[in-house]
Write a sequence for this structure.
């Protein structure tokens, strides 16, 4: 579904990504694991069209998307839930969801998608009129995921969904991520500092070190890999 090939990205004269390649097959959850500053968010932002690569290609459903404007990439069915969530704090929960669907083309399943969001995140349904900026961190994360679903996406990219969230809500969010994949067929690219948890729920994983993919494979193999265990899994 998503093929990233030989991507270079620079910030000014500093190179953040060096020849990054990986694939996200349809129907799978893929995790990117890496230390702070390894380039994980840069990869997601580049796929979303927020950063421009100087080299390489990004194909989504067989179409080249690198160089497209971010809203056109969302229209292709690829939506990002950014790090720090980036909801509209002054708008209500309901208005935030509506913003997600703003440019959506296929509107026939809009109502059923909204019902689905309310079923997996009842807290969101209970707070439709609340100002989004006053939601708890975990609730904002749920809203941000809901907003991405409202865009009509078939693939979601989640940047550190567990960041700054109470442990009990982290578990809920990860259960929902699995549910989105298993019951609704979403393909998911997941970036997580909590590598243990992320590799448990994903099918495939890539390890990123200083802007380079150093190991990739099935998540269960990565969990057994001594190098990965030592560096990222706390064993
Ligand atoms: N706008 C920017 N301008 C200059 N350098 C940047 C910019 N954004 C990121 N970088 C640098 O690029 C490198 C990769 O950053 P990135 O945010 O992709 O890392 P990350 O893996 O997501 O880290 P974290 O786990 O801390 O979120 C870092 O060295 C960072 O300082
Ligand atoms: Mg990041």
């Amino acid at each position: 579904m998503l093929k990233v090939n030989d991507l270079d990205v620079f910030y000014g004269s500093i190179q953040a990504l060096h020849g990054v390649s990986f694939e996200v097959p349809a129907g799978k959850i893929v995790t990117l694991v890496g230390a702070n500053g390894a380039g994980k968010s840069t990869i997601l932002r580049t796929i979303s069209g927020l950063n421009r690569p100087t080299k390489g290609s990004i194909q989504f459903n067989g179409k080249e998307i690198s160089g497209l404007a971010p809203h056109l990439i969302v229209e292709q069915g690829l939506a990002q839930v950014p790090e720090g969530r980036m909801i509209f704090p002054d708008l209500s929960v309901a208005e935030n969801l509506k913003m997600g669907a703003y440019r959506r083309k296929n509107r026939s399943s809009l109502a059923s998608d909204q019902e689905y969001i309310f079923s997996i995140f009842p807290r969101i349904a209970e707070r439709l009129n609340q100002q989004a900026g006053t939601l708890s961190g975990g609730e904002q994360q749920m809203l941000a995921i809901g907003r991405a679903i409202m865009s009509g996406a078939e693939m979601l990219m989640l940047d550190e969904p567990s960041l700054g969230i109470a442990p009990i809500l982290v578990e809920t969010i990860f259960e929902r991520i699995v549910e989105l994949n298993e019951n609704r067929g979403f393909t998911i690219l997941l970036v997580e500092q909590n590598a243990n948890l992320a590799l448990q729920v994903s099918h495939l994983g890539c390890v990123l070190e200083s802007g380079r993919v150093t190991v990739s494979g099935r998540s269960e193999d990565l969990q057994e890999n001594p190098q990965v265990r030592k560096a990222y899994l706390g064993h």
Notes: The chain has a mean pLDDT of 94. Residues 40-41, 83, 159 surround magnesium ion (ligand 2) (CB under 6 Å). Residues 178 and 201 are 7 Å apart (CA to CA). Strands lie at 2-11, 14-24, 29-34, 55-60, 63-64, 78-81, 155-159, 187-191, 204-209, 212-218.
